[in-house]
Amino acid sequence: MIKAVRGTRDLLPPDTDLWNQVEEKVRDVFARYNFHEIRTPVFEDTSLFARGVGEDTDIVTKEMFTWEDKGKAASEKSQSLTLRPENTAGVVRAYIEHGLDKKGTLQKLYYIGPQFRRERPQKGRYRQFYQIGAEIIGPPSAGSESPARDAEVLEMLATLLDEVGLRGWQLQLNSVGCTEDRARYNEALREALKPVVHQMCADCQRRAETNPLRVLDCKVPEDQPIIEKLPKMSQYLDEPCREHFSAVRSMLDAVGVPYTINERMVRGLDYYTRTTFEFTHGDLGAQSAVLGGGRYDGLSESLDGPKAPGIGFAIGEDRLILALQAEGVSSKEKLDAYIAPLGAGMNQHALKLARELRRAGVTADIGDETFRLKKSFEAAEKAGAKYIVIVGENEAASDEFAVKELATGKQEQVARAELVGYLRH
Ligand code: HAM
After folding, report:
1. What is the model's pTM?
2. pLDDT tens track for 10-37
3. How far is the C-alpha of 261 from the C-alpha of 171, rounded, in Å?
4. In contact, 289 and 278? CB cutoff 8 Å
5. Cβ neighbours for 243, distance < 8 A, ≥ 6 positions apart
6. How close is the Cα of 178 to the center of ligand 1, in Å?
7. How far does residue 270's CA lie from ligand 1's centre (Å)?
8. Closest to 84 in 3D by CA, of 109, 118, 108
9. Residue nearest to atom 3 of ligand 1 (CA)
10. Does the beta carbon of 252 sit less than 6 angstroms from any atom of ligand 1?
11. What's the gap in Å between 314 CA and the centre of ligand 1?
12. For 95-121, how does the pLDDT look when each residue is reduced to its tens digit (9 = 90+)?
């Protein structure tokens, strides 16, 4: 038997009802905050991610699905292509390619779609997973650097999670400063690690050389006391970065969005500057980040684009759904009615009635005239219908139908004209 590839999975009903309900709700929230959808390809030139996400990141060094797309003719060059591991680089590429900076305004863009990372699969971690993300990007003259944008994005996320029905989330906030701050901090970490690094795990020993910031990400219990004593990022922020971060925090306080400062939160992508954040959820186990994001003020320039500071996030939709299900949230989809034709020649009457009801907004399923009454009732129960509507010869002739509420057993005769209102109340 051929099975779905390791790390990929099929999403089936009724789970897909919840997925759709979440997506409908987030589109509604995005619209209220004036975000509009962008759709970029699921594969891109490999160098976009190498340069955008960062050559030294785990994503680029270990996790990308990359292949060589050979030219058709011998004269045609081959091209290295990669399934997108994330979508910020793609959005910024599109921003540059279409000259969106020339509009002179902020671009508020959102996307929903699959991403691909060759990680070790486990609960909440897949090789094909789905992100719901958004980005605000534009020229500085349009206000793209303002801490007000950071606060708007974070407040929107708090609203979005509340509206999809997630309760137990926590916002972890940090500032990683500008490129120069980070270079100074990295140097300070490298120095501080020198005398102690030999006591640490193999990964930390490697990271201390290549990218000391990543040491903060270490989960090995024995390393924690050493990491706690390392210098803190906040000591290395320059004055403008410090003020920017303080303005973001004041606005969050003013609107009442709760957060915790987590100076050890190191995001896995290199493009971040200043504000970074994650929303975590206690029911998710090891993969506790429901979403992550932050500012990327230099990304456009590193892709040869104009100066275009930005901030955004991506929700792991798979994890959001897991967290909702852990909290007992399920889809509100329901079947109003099951139409049961009873006896020969009744299929066409039932179909006509179902057509009227469905066109009027009733969700209805329909049986077959060869079913006995008992089988129709069983089918209606299994389908989860609220009512069963019997379409027999008498009903078809009188235009009055026997309607039974399955949960209570209450049965009434309802005239055709009243049926829509009756079934939907
Ligand atoms: P990220 O932190 O790499 O950021 O991913 C965002 C979210 O995607 C994670 O918090 C997690 O919920 C989900 N996720 C990541 N990998 C997996 C996986 N293998 N399986 C399931 N879910 C996963 C980004 O991707 C940035 N582009 C976010 C961003 C947008 N920053 C600025 N703008």
Report:
1. 0.94
2. 999 999 999 999 999 999 999 999 999 9
3. 8
4. yes
5. none
6. 22
7. 13
8. 118
9. 268
10. no
11. 6
12. 999 999 999 999 999 999 999 999 999
Give the closest residue to 238 by CA, choosing from 192, 187, 189, 184. 184
Return the best residue to mutate from 64, 291, 295, 321 for the ligand 1 pocket (most ligand atoms within 8 A of CB): 291
Which residue CA neighbors atom 22 of ligand 1 most closely?
316
CA of 81 to the centre of ligand 1 (A): 20
Helices 317-326 and 15-32, interaxial angle, to 10°?
110
Taking the C-alpha atoms of residue 204 and residue 211, their distance in angstroms, rounded to an integer, is 9
CB 23 within 8 Å of CB 239: no
pLDDT tens sequence across 372-387? 999 999 999 999 999 9
Ordered alpha helix ranges (H), 138-297: 147-164, 179-193, 202-210, 224-228, 239-255
The one-letter code for the residue type at 149 is R
Reply yes or no: is the peptide bond before residue 14 cis, omega within 30 of 0: yes
The residue assigned the tokens 């070790």 is 120
| Separation between Cα atoms, residue 259 and residue 273, nearest integer Å | 19
Distance CA 179, CA 159 (A): 31
Pocket test for ligand 1, best of 129, 160, 279, 295 (most atoms within 8 A of CB): 129
- pLDDT tens per residue, range 242-297: 999 999 999 999 999 999 999 999 888 999 999 999 999 998 888 899 999 999 99
CB 178 within 8 A of CB 297: yes
